[in-house]
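Retro notes
What went well: the complex prediction finally ran end to end.
Inputs used:
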Amino acid sequence: MASESAPARYPAAALRAFTAAVLERDDLPPADAARVAELMIEADLSGQDGHGIFLLLQYVRRIRGGAVNVRPRIRVEESGPGTALVDGENGMGHLVLTRAVETATAPARAAGGARVGVRASNHAGPAALYASMPVAHDMIGIYAAVANAYHLAPWGGQELLLGTNPLAMAVPTAAAPPPVLDMATTVVSYGTIKKYVQRGESIPLGWVTNAAGKAITDPAHASEGFLPPVGAYKGSGLALMLGLLASVMNGAAFGRDMVDFNVDDHRTTNTGHLLVAVDVARFPPVEAFKREVDRRLRDMRASRRLPRVETIYLPGEQRHTRIQEQTTHGVPLPAALVAELDHLAASVVVAPPAATHAT
Amino acid sequence: MASESAPARYPAAALRAFTAAVLERDDLPPADAARVAELMIEADLSGQDGHGIFLLLQYVRRIRGGAVNVRPRIRVEESGPGTALVDGENGMGHLVLTRAVETATAPARAAGGARVGVRASNHAGPAALYASMPVAHDMIGIYAAVANAYHLAPWGGQELLLGTNPLAMAVPTAAAPPPVLDMATTVVSYGTIKKYVQRGESIPLGWVTNAAGKAITDPAHASEGFLPPVGAYKGSGLALMLGLLASVMNGAAFGRDMVDFNVDDHRTTNTGHLLVAVDVARFPPVEAFKREVDRRLRDMRASRRLPRVETIYLPGEQRHTRIQEQTTHGVPLPAALVAELDHLAASVVVAPPAATHAT
């Protein structure tokens, strides 16, 4: 692996193969390793790279520390025409959620919508991945999760009892890229902060603060900070409510019971997720709905822009463009990450991926 | 009606009776008038007074202008075990949503959850009202709506194609007040702005801006402004997605089709709502879940506070306290509103409500 100061680009296929090989070495069954790798690299392709191959070393550390079960027997308990509870038996979150989405589709078709609660899962990468999956079935996807770290206090408090609990939604379209909203309930996600820390870059104002609300910009001190909620009390309230829905209702960890997967390589997180699939066809005919969504998005996109704004990007559009661009031209990996992956490759006796071309 | 400069207090019962009498004069059937009045005054009691009796004159204007149907035959089309579409036939939103909540309960019990889409409705007051209703059935309530006014541009744009589209959620508890989140996707709701306008008070910085992002504080110019989205692109994206779910999916108005009910007394709004009821009992036993929610809320409330913060209020707690306090001591109405209601009372030959006591 090269390590120029300008980031080299790597073909997605090479990154997938490398990631899967590493995970196989750490005892994931080949099909499971391939699935986790596929979703991790999809995160990289989409630009949500704080949730992609960047996390491989951390995942491996936790697998080796006994914190994650590499051979889970994921259990599904269907509790009604439109509901199911998935117990991930502490498997990789990507696998547990893949199962949750599969579980949701048939009941959503039968009942008009389905809600799948998840417990005993793990970190699963970006929320957009899972909200997007029902879209292939002409369903709206909604996803929420309890983040595996303490970053947020109840509004007015200074104890970090909440995570950056994200919310994502995706809607089917006819021809336009499906709109995908993926928002942490903090100003930015901690995955984004971790990228700055790894690169030793100064953190932008307002992303991390101390308890008194004063900005922390030094990456060496980022882990001591608070992540301010988006929209002040609104983001804090939303993080709380999403936690009750995605976690407490499913018997997953919340509040003081959470385990911070950034600092703990041994304990299970009992991560909770919520996945909802909504069958569009119950009200309007699917094709009519999708065309109507396209028309509405087109209208927004073509509306009058602010001065100095060249393009109005709707939720998920930049993600869509980035996936196409990076699938063709490769995923840029910063030098610090390449060095870390080289080291990991050597330790597990796997060939590191080769860059397509340096830029 | 008195009109001191310090706001007089009015018993909720008197305000309900007055509101119902006015609506009856304008041809709502007595039971419908009473129901609308009940929900409007509940908004006042909870402190969401930009959505309460404050709106009575505006509602009456629109009824008289032929914009609202006072004798709707609300139609329910059940389209699956867990879905239904309610066509409000342009009735008052409060009535249409009351019907939507009633419609949701049985299928939610049967399927584990239900989603009711609403079209041909009208402004219905605060989102918290409707998200809270399923809680009495031991269900989680989720509500979203397309607001009846243009206040928000797609991110990067300067055409107001979006409303303040709110999201609300409420969760059952054992003994604690149920947590209720009610958030506009803008920094504040337009109902809040309108209160400042009516009182002629200067608008706080950051609540209304011009297209260039410069604050508008003069109440006389508030209606020309933008309401900035909460969390910048996140709030704008959320407003868009909620609009697709609450409106486009139900065949209700969205984007350029919206009618601004603040300035138009004649045209129908075709307002869209989304109401979801989630049956808690599908996963954990209800009582265990409610006790667990109580415990989690207690934990948050008792956590270490920031300096100078006396109480950590969780979502809905201040609302709950205010309802109790104002039910006992009456609802304070500002002088400008009292004058407006006095005038309305005279015009429809209804006795105005009497204040309990001046403060």
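What we learned: Chain A touches chain B through 70 residues (CB under 8 Å).
What to try next: split runs per interface for comparison.
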